Amino acid sequence: MDTNRGLERAKPVIAAVLGEQQRLWKSLLSVPRVVQTALEIQVGTSPHDVVLGRGTHTLLRYHRDTPATQAEPVLLCYALVNRPYILDLQPDKSVVGQYLRRGFEVYLIDWGVPTDADRGLTLEHYVCDFLAEAVDFVRRAHDRAKVHLVGYCMGGTLSALHAALAPDTAATLTLLAAPIDFAGGESLLHLWTQRGHFDVDALIDGYGNCPGWFLQWCFLAMNPVRNFLDKAIAFYEQMDDPRSMESHFALERWLNDNIPVAGATFREFVGKLYQRNELVRGELRLGQHRIDLHRVTCPVLLLTASNDHLVAPESTEGIRPHLGSRDVTSMPIRAGHVGLVVGARAHREFWPEATRWAADRSTPPSDPRARSAPEQSEIAQQPQTARKTYRRAGNAEPRWWALER
User: Fold this and answer.
1) Which of 31, 104, 228, 400 is most buried as measured by Cβ atoms within 10 A of its Cβ?
2) 244-266: per-residue pLDDT in tens?
3) Per the residue annotation, which of 77, 88, 125, 153 is the catalytic one?
């Protein structure tokens, strides 16, 4: 009788051990396929052409299978950290694809990888030089007066700066988890970059550019349990699921594709924004221009992630009191900083709404109001001698080129 009772009690334990053993064997048998997936994974596969380039910067234009149904094109601007293909990671996780399906012509800025010769590039260069040129190129390519600006993370900050400097060129401004107000202490980045904790001048004086490995380890250290333990457990549990492995390796490829940030720009971004919060205070200057966010009068969409450990929603929402626009919409999602753009739920529910918001504020291609002959933006009209020169090793001038489709 006691023996039978003991066996009954042991059954759940035995079943659990056998189940775990079965899972282990399934994982081990999946190893060859997992290795092949890791070697063959493709990212950023949406067909596109490089239509503009300067130095390390390029502008990509994505192919459409059908004519655009929205008059104003979309220009995506990513951060200077990591690579921009996170916005086109996989066919089913592509922000680029979402805007294409909504009927837009879509462009994306790839800032490239800065070299030692680029250490002197400043925020003024990125905003007033190439971003302004890219906006004007897109406007002229489609004979449109305005474009939809979509900026992610630090790219959102750059897009907001452009919209304040050249408000007549922006049809709408969409900010994805973009740091704007740096007053809060909601994220570790805000705490770590404070003057008492971080000497940005010493880092840049020593390295020239901010090293990619330094940024990666900072990001990993912000959430070590999730980045090291939880990720390893999830990988083991999903090894026998080919689709999960494809998503895992695509994201891991991007996460480890780190690039440096031009030293002068990193020094400015940390010193003027993280440490002195000059943007929302109205004190930020790019060369001769003072940035006044009140000049942003186009419709603005604020996309935030509630679990974002890099850019707190409060930082993005902090732009609201300083805008001149009367059309400001907020769309939060329960996701992390990266899940905002690659999460399955985000692409199922969130992005169709975000692209619809832009479409609702677009004009049909036949509307003559959208086809006003676009003039050069104010910042692009400045003579070259009044702007920061962009020189590479040997003082060679940068190569400009444009390829028409």
Assistant:
1) 104
2) 667 767 778 878 888 999 999 99
3) 153
